[in-house]
Amino acid sequence: xxxxxxxxxxATVLIFFVATSFTNNTEAGVYNLHLxxxxxxxxxxxxxxxxxxxxxLGTPQEKCIAVWRxxxxxxxxxxxxxxxxxxxxxxILHYNSYGTMxxxxxxxxxxxxxxxxxxxxxxxxxxxxxxSEVSWDGGAxxxxxxxxxxxxxxxxxSVVASCEEIKASHAGEFSDGxxxxxxxxxxxxxxxxxxxxxxxxxxxxxxxxxxYQRTLLNGASSYTGGFSVDKYTLHVRHGHRYILNLLPGQxxxxxxxxxxxSGADEDKRNYYRPLKGKDPDxxxxxxxxxxxxxxxxxxxxxxADCRDLFYDSENIEVAAEHDSGPAVHPAKSGKSxxxxxxxxxxxxxxxxxxxxxxxxxxxxxxxxxxVSRCAGIKWIPVWESRQIGRQPVELRLRDxxxxxxxxxxxxxxxxxxxxxxxxxxxxxxxxITQLNRRTLPKLTLGSNQIRLSADSQVDTTVLWPPLxxxxxxxxxxxxRDVYSDEKPDGMYKATLGAGRNGTACEVVWxxxxxxxxxxxxxxxxxTNKSPNDFVSLQYSHDGRKFREFYxxxxxxxxxxxxxxxxxxxxxxxxxARQAFFKGVFFSKNGAAAYTMSGIQDIxxxxxxxxxxxxxxxxxxxxxxxEHRASGDVTRSHTEPIRSLExxxxxxxxxxxxxxxxxxxxxxxGGDPDQQRIVYGYSDGKDVGARFEPEAKIFVWGDNIxxxxxxxxxxxxxxxxxxxxxxxxxxxxxxxxxxxxxxxSKIVQAATAFWASGESVTVVIDLGSVKSVAGLRVSTxxxxxxxxxxxxxxxxxxxxxxxxxxxxxxxHDDLWKPPGDYEPWEHDxxxxxxxxxxxxxxxxxxxxxxxxxxxxxxxxxxxxxxEGRGMGLSEIEIFDKVEVSPAPPLVAPLRxxxxxx
Length: 900
Known about the structure:
The chain is mainly beta.
C-alpha cells in the first residue's frame, strides 16, 4: 500500500506545475533553488520551513507539535555553535549548516517558527534548563514544548500543558487521587516522548536518556522548583535564507558524512567550524551531525561568454574576443584591472582551495589575489606574484574565508607594458562547506518524491557583520559617536548604540551590487528601554537622502525587537547599484552603557539582476547504499531537469532506510567527474514502490498484562548481571530506554537478558478470559552480545493447552516504526553500525489484530539471532487499540515559481 504521503504529492504536481522553456545558453545560471524531498521540510527559508512542516495539519496543536518534532530532529543537544563570537540564533542558518545547540537556542528557534505561524511565543527560564511556550489563542492559554529534552505532555483535557500546569498540583488515577506537583509531567507525557508513566520513566528520545538520567522525576523538578517567564526579551532571530545558485562550471555535492574521514587531507580543521575549538562531531560523542559540501567552480575563461560568470570586473578583456594573450587580462595597460568571482556556498564555508595559471611578464607588473567575506567591503590579500613568466597559483585558505556563506575572490592586474603581459589563463575554486546532515533532502525506504523549484531569478549579496568589540569598524561606511559593547548581543542589551548622551549618534553601512538592484531586505534587532530615547532605522540608495522605515521610542519590551523591512523594485530608483542602511541612536542618559539605545544585530540581503537569467537544464544525482537481505548495494539516480518546477520519484529497496552518501547538483554537462551521464538508475532498475512501509498511528487502551504472572521456558542469564529478577520484570510496567547499559543498577528493573541458544517462551496468565486487541513487546540491544529477537511469534489460549497463532513479529520490523515514532538522538550514530539494529538500542514492537480476540493465556516465543542472546524489557497486552493511517511527514510538495 502506498501511504498518504505519496498520493498527496501526486495531486500537487498536477496542480502546481509551471513550465519554463529550455534555452541552450552556455553561460546562464539558475538562482534561489529549492531541492526538497517528501521526507523532511524545506529548509530554504523560514516561510518554506514552516509551510512544509505544518501546512498539511489541521489544528494549531498539531502544527506546534510538528515544529517541536522537526526542531528536535534537526539538531543535537550539545554546545552552541558560534561565529565571530556570536551565537547562531537564526533557524535557517542553524538548521542548514550547524545543528549543534543547547536548550536555550532550540527554544528560540522554535519560537521563530511559531511567530511565523501567527502565534505568540515566550521564553521560559527554568532553574536548570530553558524551554519555550506557544499560545495559539492570543495568550489565553500557553503550551510548553521542549525540543532539547525531546518532551511535551498533556493536561487532563488532552491539550499540551503549560509550565504552570506542570508545576501545579493535580490528582488522578496514576497518583491514587493524591494531589501531586508535576503530575502531568509524570503521568501525561506524550507517548512518543516517554518509555512509561511514572517518576522512573525515561524521556526516551532525548540525547542519553539513561546515562544522563533523563527521568521524568528529574524533568519535572525543573518546573516544580519554580521558573520565570521572560517578559522583556523574545530570544528570536530570523531572516537568513539558504541561497543555492548554480552557474556554468559549478557543481555542488553534499555529503552525509565528513569528507575528512577519507584521510585525504591531513588538517581536519579545513572541514569544520570549530565548536569550542573542536570538531562538532566529537562533542559529547555525537558523530552524526556534521556533513560536508564540495563546491567546484571552474569557469571556461577562453569562452567569450565567460564575462557573464564574473561577479564584477573593471578594465578587463577576454582573450576569446581577440584571440591573443592570457585568457583574462587588462583591456588597457597603465590602468589597474580586476575581475571578481563569487562563491555563493549556501552552507557555511570551512575552507577554500584556489588553483590557477597566471602570467606576469615584468617585475613591475602587478598580479595578486584577494578575498572578501563581507560583500567586498574589506579585502584580504592572500597571494601576490613574485615571479616572472607563466606560473601556477596554489592557495589553501581557511580563516580568511571561513564562517560565512558567501565569499568573493578578486584577481588584480596591472602592467606598464602590453596589456597581454599580465593575466589569468585558468582558474579553479574548490570550496568546502560544513552542513547539518540531519536536514539534507534525504531518501527513505520505498518511494520518494523529489522536487526542484526556484524563487525569483536574482543574485543576492548578503552582509551579516559582527558589531561587538569594535568589529563593526571592519564593515561600516561611516559612524559618529557610537559605542560597541565588548560582548555580542545578549537579547537584553544593545551591542552597538549611542555613545554620547543627548546626541543623535549614527552608523551607516553600504552594500554595492555589480548589477541593478531589484530588492533589498533590511534586518535589525532593536533595543530601546526608555521613552526618552529612540532608535531610528533608515535606508537610502544615494547615501544622501535617507528614509526612515522604523522607529522605536516607547521604551517597551521586547528589548530585542526584530525588524525586517523589504524594499521592492518599485521602491528602488532605476539602475541603483548601492544600498545604504543607517541606524540613529539617541539616549538622553545611559549612553555607552547597559541602558543605551541601539541595535544588537543587522542582516542585509541585496538582490540584484543576474547578467543572464535564462534557464539552463540541471542534473541532480542522488547516491545511496541500500541494505538488502542479500547484502548492501550502492546505487545512484540522475534526473535531468529541463523546466521548473520539476517533481520526480526515486524508489529505494532494502529492509531499512538506506545509508545516504551524497546528492549533487550541476547544470547540464557540468558533472565534475566528466563522465558520460546516464539518466535514471545507475543499474537501470526501478524497484518500484513495493518497499514503501505503511505508517500507522496506534492509540493503546489499558495494559491488562501489568503485574500479571508469567512463566519462562529457560532461565535468564545470571552472567549478564541482570537476570529477570523473581520472574516479574517482563510485566512490571518499566520499559527500557535506548542505552548500552547492561548491568547498571538503574536499568535492573527495566530489562533482562537471555544467553544465546534456544528460543525463549513466555506465557502470561491474564487471570481470566479477556478481550485482546493487540500487544507490544519491548526489547533491548545494548551491545552485540544481547540483541533484539530474530522473530517473535504470538499465540492465544483459553486453557493454556490449545493455542491459536495470532501473529508474527520480525526483527527488521523495527525499521518500520509507527508514524509518530521519535528516535533518540544517537539512533543513527555510526558507532553502532556493526550491531544488527544499529543504533536502535530499544524498541517496542507493536502487533494488532483486525478485530479483538479472546484468551486467558498469551504465549510469546522469542527466537534469538544466531549466536546472540536477547534483551527483553516488557510485554504489554491491550484490551483495545485504535489504528489509523499516519499523516504525511510534511506538507505536499508545493509550487515555487521560477521567474521568467
